[in-house]
Design the sequence.
């Protein structure tokens, strides 16, 4: 698995979930897909509301890393995967979330 910073060497890699030793919500998106453009304002709000407990990491599916991530976790856009600081999956959701319900669900892991 390639870390967000593009480093494959484990001792140097920050990884997706352990930059700040907290959970990371990976948001898999594309600027060209309508569902992702609808989800963007919700993701922006989530970022403000859940910080610092959960860090939002935006991963563009059209990048090499985004494509690898999508294949490894078998998820497409708009997709959300909550990872703990050991990169273990805690929760996944695909589609445009209802913000209130999604926040309630995410707070179960804080």
Sequence:
């Amino acid at each position: 698995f390639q870390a967000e910073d593009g480093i494959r060497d484990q001792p140097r890699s920050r990884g997706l979930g352990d930059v700040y030793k907290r959970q990371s919500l990976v948001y898999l998106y594309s600027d060209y897909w309508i569902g992702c453009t609808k989800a963007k304002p919700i993701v922006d709000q989530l970022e403000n509301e859940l910080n610092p407990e959960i860090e939002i990491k935006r991963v563009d599916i059209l990048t090499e890393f985004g494509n690898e991530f999508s294949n490894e976790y078998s998820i497409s856009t708009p997709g959300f995967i909550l990872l703990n600081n050991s990169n273990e999956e805690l929760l996944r959701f695909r589609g445009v979330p209802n913000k209130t319900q999604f926040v309630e669900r995410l707070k179960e892991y804080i």
In short: The first strand starts at residue 23 and ends at 29. Residues 23 and 54 are 5 Å apart (CA to CA). The chain is about 35% helix and 25% strand. Residues 34-50 form the longest helix (17 residues).
